[in-house]
Amino acid sequence: MAVESLAQxxxxxxxxxxxxxxxxxxxxxxxxxxxxxxxxxxxxLILLTVLFPVLGLGLGPGTYPSIGLLLGWSxxxxxxxxxxxxxxxxxxxxxLTRAVADLYLGRSPSFGGTYRQIGPFLGRILAMIALALLLxxxxxxxxxxxxxGWFTGMGAFFFFGSLVLxxxxxxxxxxxxxxxxxxxxxxxxxRRRFWWVVGFGLSLSFFQQFLITGPSxxxxxxxxxxxxxxxxxxxxxxxxxxxxxxxxSLFYLPLQQAAITLxxxxxxxxxxxxxxxxxxxxxxxxxxxxxxPRSRPVPLIQGRELGYFAxxxxxxxxxxxxxxxxxxxxxYALF
Length: 335
Description:
globular; 82% helix; 14 helices; mainly alpha
């Protein structure tokens, strides 16, 4: 796909549906390569999700773990979860971003070539994920502040986790930014079309819940009877949920990161005219990506954006209330 066709295909007027459609196109076109890139990290993580429950909870009827073993298991689960967060949201996301960007810039991505390209950025990637975790804790603290934090914290937490951090990966890799500047640059790109990107993030969240969370939970519930056979219902649930969720994530992550990478390109085109720059200059598009247009300085956050976060928090609270109300009504109807 040439640079000209990139500018025509990811046109600013096409909307969320078109971007998701193009993400599916990229996913199908390079399915083996993208799955191999994700599998390099996801398969070891899946094995960890099996290893720790088996070691900590015992296997076989009549086996009961000791307190020390349970503490070791809990520590291992926490450490593996943190490791998985760093690897999935950092290394895997960066490699998939590089592969999808190469595909849409007219190159043919490969497994080895993709990981070699992101090798020099490994330190920056891990540093940015660590910085993102710190910012998440600060947002949690913010959400506990009476009044303003209560009303805006949930919305800010959702926006940062679902949009700012994922888009910061293409910024860091493709624009060669530092971790701090990548997060700030991601926020500045997204805030220009705030409600549009919120809709995009909600679409991806629904996709994830429908394709991963829901099937994992249902599958683990369907086979809980195996717990009676092995003597440990908790063990069966932990292993099945981990394996099913990991396998589904393996197939979903490339699609998600393709959509995030296309969102980044779309924002560059809509707000900075990157497609016009590609048409006007004779340089390769990959060399033009780090050339970020200068813009007037703006505060880190403005009053209207606090209002936006409050609106998101209110919408999420209303949705949670409706879901709980529906569950209570269903329970009364059944029992």
